Amino acid sequence: MIARANHRVTYPARIQLVAAMNPCRCGMAGEPGYRCLRGDRCRTDYQARISGPLLDRIDLRIEVPAVSASDLIRPDRAEKSAAVALRVARARTIQRERFERLGATSATTNAHCSPSVIEEIAMPDASGLSLLRDASEKLGFSARAYHRVLKVARTLADLEASETVGRIHLAEAISYRMSSERMAQAA
Ligand SMILES: [Zn+2]
User: Fold this and answer.
1) CA of 163 to the centre of ligand 1 (A)
2) pLDDT digits over 103-130, tens only?
3) Which helix (H) or strand (E) holds 2?
4) What is the tens place of the pLDDT at every residue in 51-63?
5) Total Cβ atoms within 10 A of residue 10
6) How many distinct structural domains can be found in the chain?
7) Which residues form the domain of 42?
8) If pLDDT is split at 50, 70 and 90, which confidence band does 178 have?
9) Domain at 166, CATH number
10) Residues less than 5 Å from ion ligand 1, measured at CB
11) What is the DSSP letter of 8?
C-alpha cells in the first residue's frame, strides 16, 4: 500500500525476492589471498549502495564463494532437490496445521503470520531468548527484523520437526541476517 497526502493505492503483491550481488566493486573481496586495491572501502562503499530499509526486508543473506574449476570436477554429493522438496512440504504441513489449531487461518506459513501470532508460536527457551536479546542490541534490529528472525527460527525448527524453538535455531536465523560487513566486525 502506498499512501500519499491525497491518495492511497493498494497493489496486490505477495512476492518472494531472490537477488544476488558481488561482495565489492571489483568483485573479489573475500577471495583467499586477494586484497582489493581500494582496501576495505571497496566492500563497504559497494554494500552501502543497498538502502537499509530494503536490506531490512531480506531475511536470508548468504555468502557464496566463487566456484572454481575443481569444484566442477568433484562428484555431485549435494542433497537432491526432490529430498529437499519433501522436507519443505512436511514443514509447510506442520505450519498449516498449527495455524488451524490456533484459529489463525489467515496465514498458512510462518512468513505470513502476524507479529502477535509469531511471538506466541516461536517463543524461544531461556537461552534462546538471551541470545536474541544480545543480538537485537548488538545488531540494532528493528521491530520488523526482530519478528522476521523469529519467523525464520520457527521455520528452521519446523524443518527439523522440532516442537520448540531453541538457541540453535535462533543462532542460525540471526546469522542469515548479518551482512558480510557485520560478520567481519563481529569476528
Ligand atoms: Zn574489491
Assistant:
1) 44
2) 988 889 999 999 999 999 999 989 999 9
3) strand 2-4
4) 988 888 999 999 8
5) 8
6) 2
7) 1-49
8) confident
9) 1.10.8
10) 24, 26, 29, 36, 42
11) E
